[in-house]
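note to self — DONT lose this again. spent like an hour looking for the file last time. sequence + predicted structure for the chain T wanted, 86 res
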Amino acid sequence: MQALELEIKELLVSALNLEDIAPDDIDPEAPLFNEGLALDSIDALELGLALQKRYGLTLSADSAETRRHFASIRALATLVAEQRTR
């Protein structure tokens, strides 16, 4: 799971052009929004598209479920791992 988390961190940094943040600087359990990395809704859309392209994810339109998946890098890694096994 750590390798997948690192892949997602690298994807996040690349997709969002986070020049001042290295993938290793991101805590996998830290919130991605608000007090964490302080991402916004546009960042969420860009990250969602990058995840769909890279991993073939299908993301739900249910905002509560999507918020849960986008809570942290670890939550995203869990989602990717779950969808890979389907």
